[in-house]
Structures are given as C-alpha cells and as structure tokens.
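Incident log, support desk, overnight shift.

02:14 A customer reports that sequence design results differ from what the structure should imply. Their input is reproduced verbatim below. On-call engineer (initials T.W.) acknowledged and began investigating.
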C-alpha cells in the first residue's frame, strides 16, 4: 500500500459536495486499510498516536474539518507512519467513540469541552488530608462521569494522614467502589480494578495523582511535587491529558490504560441532564415510575416516588440522600 494511493483518495474528498444532501457515505474515500492507532496526547495541533509497535506524531487531515480529535480516540492514519524523527502522519478518520467525558469550564459556559474519548472508568483521586477532601468537587466529577456512562472509582490517597470513614459514609451508599493508598501501599487490588479497562484519572492539584500514576507505571515519569505558581517550573506543565499503558497484571496481558488529566480546578456541568444522572442508577430509575410527570426527584419534590420507596422500606434513606446530592450537583 503506497502513500501515493492514499493521497489520491484524500484529494477526492476535498471536492466540494455539489448538493448538501449528497449522501455522506458515497464517494467517501475508503480508509479501511489505513493504520489504526490511539491518540495518547495532544500538543498544539500535533497528536501523538500509538500504533501497534510505535509512537508517531500526526496532524489532522484537512478533510476532518472541525471534527475534534481528543486523547483516547481511535484514529486512522496515513502518510508517513514510520514514526521516525521529523516525520508526520495524517489522521484521516476518527472511529466512533464509545464514551466521551466532557466538562464545561464553569456552569455558565455553554461550550462543552470533550476531554477524553473511549474511557470506561473514572478514577477520582482525592487526598484524605493535605489538601482536605472537597466533597462538592467529588460530587461534580461523579456527575460528569455518570453522565458520560463511566463507572466511578474513588481513589483515596494519603491514607497515612487521615482515615476514609467520612468519605465512605458519603459515597458508599451510592455504590462507588473505594480504594485507599499511601506511600509504599500494595497496589495489587487497584491494579486488578484497572486491568483491561481505560480509566481516566482526575483530581485536584496536589492530591498525589502523579505520585500514584508513577507508582502504577514506573516509566511514566509524571512530574510531582509542589507547584511553583509563579514560575510553573520544576514540574510537567502539559495542559493535555495523556494516555499511558499499564503493565500486564498476572496472566492478563492487557493491564489497562490510565488517562492522566491535568489537575482540575473546576468541573462545570452545564451540559449534564437530570435524565442522564438518573439513568446511571437503574434501581432508582425503576422507583421513579410512579413520580408525577416532570418530577425533579429533588429533596421536597412533591409526591416523588423515591420518598415513597423509602417510606415502604424499598430504598435505604442514605442512598436516596447521596443520590439527591448528585441531582443537586448536576443542576
Ligand atoms: N503523606 C503523603 N504524601 C503524599 C502521598 N502521595 C503524594 N504525597 C505528596 O503530596 C505532594 C503532591 O503529590 P503529587 O503527586 O505531585 O500531586 P498531584 O496530584 O500530581 O499534583 P499536581 O502534580 O499538581 O497535579 C507531594 O509532595 C507528594 O510527595 C501520600 O500517599 N501520603
Ligand atoms: Zn421523583
């Protein structure tokens, strides 16, 4: 397969459609034989794509137009895919995404920022102390994860400094699995829940996320340490997420992927709908069958079926309370 052949195909795609109604699939170049890889990081319009056995740098082909390419995307690449110094491939197609984790910069921001594609687990890294846990933030990240259809995992760091009891009481009733870590911790259990999956790690700056990622993936070399806010020096300052492959776990060759994201300060949720949060809890969803039409399920919502379920003994009050925190956070 020569690259010349691809170039010809690509030129065909540049021809302006004569009518807007032209079926999209007709005349579309066939890239089914193009090399497939995964976008592992993005830096100023340059994409690092991991192919089967090598990493290459690529740009986005013009015909992709405004189609975004984000970390985690599975893409088809043509052109020079040797990965040799100074070479550039071209991303010509983005495969359909299984999930998209989005955030808005703040709640008034109408612009959704897709940050990670194709993840299936959201690992919320929170320190038990120094800095103290911010439950409002955890709630918001959870809601973004539920909205995106990701399974949550709460990873509590600095367990040497404080106990997890309070957080367990808040998040246990939601069914969020919890892992605790501290310096020198045995990571066997954590590795087991990451194996074979693609897990996005999010957390506030300073919680020990880089320390944890480095412990999981010794050659990750994620920058750690206190942030010098003035110079920004002495640490990795990438603003993009980065996908890292975990080592095999026992017989499981695919140890999974960690997608490390830069420390988040805010997690705007203006894109989230109430329905998507409720849908993440099938048992509660079922109990809302008898709610009045348009019920918000919030505390005090008249005749909410969830209150009736608690009254009947079909729903634990603590679970309802935690669920309502999610609904409140999403508003
Ligand atoms: N006591 C204690 N300190 C820890 C633990 N994990 C990390 N630290 C310390 O906490 C500080 C912050 O750790 P980092 O790994 O840089 O935190 P981060 O979340 O990656 O922060 P950014 O790099 O700013 O995103 C460092 O001084 C670490 O040595 C832990 O489990 N216990
Ligand atoms: Zn209701």
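02:41 Re-run completed on a clean worker. Output:
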């Amino acid at each position: 397969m020569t690259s010349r052949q691809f170039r010809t195909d690509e030129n065909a795609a540049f021809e302006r459609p004569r009518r807007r109604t032209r079926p999209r699939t007709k005349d579309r170049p066939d890239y089914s034989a193009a090399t497939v890889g995964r976008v592992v990081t993005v830096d100023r319009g340059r994409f690092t794509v991991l192919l089967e056995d090598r990493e290459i740098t690529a740009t986005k082909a013009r015909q992709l137009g405004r189609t975004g390419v984000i970390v985690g995307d599975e893409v088809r690449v043509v052109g020079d895919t040797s990965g040799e110094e100074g070479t550039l491939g071209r991303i010509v197609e983005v495969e359909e995404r299984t999930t998209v984790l989005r955030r808005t910069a703040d709640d008034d921001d109408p612009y959704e920022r897709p940050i990670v594609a194709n993840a299936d687990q959201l690992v919320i890294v929170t320190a038990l102390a120094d800095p103290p846990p911010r439950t409002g933030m955890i709630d918001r990240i959870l809601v973004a994860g539920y909205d995106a259809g990701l399974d949550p995992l709460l990873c509590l760091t600095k367990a040497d400094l404080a106990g997890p009891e309070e957080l367990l009481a808040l998040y246990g009733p939601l069914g969020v699995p919890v892992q605790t870590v501290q310096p020198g911790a045995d990571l066997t259990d954590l590795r087991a829940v990451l194996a074979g999956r693609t897990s996005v790690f999010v957390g506030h700056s300073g919680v020990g996320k880089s320390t944890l990622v480095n412990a999981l993936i010794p050659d990750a070399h994620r920058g750690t340490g206190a942030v010098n806010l003035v110079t920004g020096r002495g640490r990795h300052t990438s603003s993009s997420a980065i996908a890292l492959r975990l080592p095999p776990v026992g017989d499981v060759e695919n140890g999974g992927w960690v997608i490390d994201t830069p420390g988040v300060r805010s997690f705007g949720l203006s894109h989230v709908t109430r329905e998507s949060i409720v849908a993440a809890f099938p048992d509660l969803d079922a109990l809302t069958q008898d709610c009045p039409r348009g019920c918000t399920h919030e505390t005090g919502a008249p005749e909410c079926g969830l209150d009736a379920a608690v009254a009947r003994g079909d729903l634990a009050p603590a679970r309802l309370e935690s669920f309502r925190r999610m609904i409140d956070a999403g508003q």
